[in-house]
Specification:
With 71 residues, the protein is mostly helical. It has five helices and no strands. The longest helix is centred in the middle third of the chain and has 15 residues. The radius of gyration is 15 Å and the shape is elongated.
Length: 71
């Protein structure tokens, strides 16, 4: 229950994520690690674009992050 409470507070829906991988925690962990590996600089890139008033780039990066293809 504590994991679900903390995931709800962070905006991460653990039950929904597990449902997408048929309850396979190992697979979910692999996907999450891959996502983090590919997107570790994206938040900084968005911040930098915003600081430079490059809203088009910030929007593109945020959208790519949302759909999981930022890198």
């Amino acid at each position: 229950q504590a994991v679900q409470d903390s995931s709800a507070a962070s905006g991460f829906d653990l039950p929904a994520a597990l449902a997408r991988v048929n309850g396979n925690r190992d697979l979910l962990i692999r996907f999450l690690r891959l996502f983090l590996e590919r997107n570790h600089n994206t938040l900084n890139d968005i911040k930098q674009a915003m600081e430079q008033s490059d809203l088009a780039s910030a929007r593109r990066l945020a959208h790519a992050l949302k759909i999981g293809r930022a890198s």
